[in-house]
């Protein structure tokens, strides 16, 4: 079993979105993640949770050269896709408060 965890300050994501706008968004998030973000009201907690997911997944798999868009998480009950493939042995949990978002990835 492998585990990865990450925590993100939502204010940090807010600063990056305001400073770099679409350059930041398009570098980190897939088109489907951005569409889901827009559909769900453009909440920064969504972006922070998805950012934390990418970090937690990379910590769990320990792959060098992992690109941000290689990891995608979608859905109200989020699931991870790696390079557009469904992962059956991976469990993801995302949680957030007003200030922080966290993600835990467990790979069996």
> Major sheet: order of its strands?
1-6-5
Number of domains: 1
The secondary-structure class comes to alpha+beta
What helical percentage do the residues reach?
A: 40-55%
- Outline, from the CA principal axes? globular
Q: Overall pLDDT, averaged?
A: 94
Share of β-strand residues: 25-35%
Termini distance?
A: 5 Å
Radius of gyration: 13 Å
Report the uncertain regions: none
Number of strands: 6
Task: Profile the largest sheet.
Answer: 3 strands, antiparallel
What would CATH call the homologous superfamily? 4'-phosphopantetheinyl transferase domain
Could you spell the SSE succession in H and E letters? EHHHHEEEEE
What is the class in the CATH system? Alpha Beta
Count of alpha/pi helices: 4
CATH architecture: Alpha-Beta Complex
Question: In CATH terms, what is the fold-level topology?
Answer: Ribosomal Protein L22, Chain A
What topology emerges from the helices and strands here?
Layout: E1 2-9, H1 10-20, H2 22-28, H3 31-39, H4 44-61, E2 71-74, E3 79-82, E4 85-86, E5 90-96, E6 100-107
Antiparallel strand pairs: 1-6, 2-3, 3-4, 5-6
Helix pairs in contact: 1-2, 1-4
Describe the structure.
The chain is α+β, with helices and mostly antiparallel strands and 108 residues long. It has one domain: Ribosomal Protein L22, Chain A (Alpha-Beta Complex), CATH 3.90.470.20. The protein has 4 helices and 6 strands, in the order βααααβββββ. It has helices at residues 10-20, 22-28, 31-39, 44-61, and strands at residues 2-9, 71-74, 79-82, 85-86, 90-96, 100-107. A 3-stranded antiparallel β-sheet has the order 1-6-5. It has a 3-stranded antiparallel β-sheet with strand order 2-3-4. Helix 1 (10-20) crosses helix 2 (22-28) and helix 1 (10-20) crosses helix 4 (44-61). The N and C termini lie close together (5 Å). The model has no long low-confidence stretch (mean pLDDT 94).
């Amino acid at each position: 079993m492998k585990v990865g965890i990450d925590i993100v300050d939502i204010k940090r994501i807010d600063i990056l979105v305001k400073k770099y706008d679409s350059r930041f968004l398009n570098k980190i998030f897939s088109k489907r993640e951005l569409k889901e973000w827009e559909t769900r009201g453009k909440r920064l907690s969504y972006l922070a949770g998805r950012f934390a997911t990418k970090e937690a997944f990379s910590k769990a798999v320990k792959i060098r050269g992992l690109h941000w868009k290689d990891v995608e998480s979608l859905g109200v009950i989020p699931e991870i896709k790696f390079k557009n493939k469904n992962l059956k042995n991976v469990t993801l949990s995302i949680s957030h408060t007003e200030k922080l978002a966290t993600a835990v990835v467990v790979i069996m």
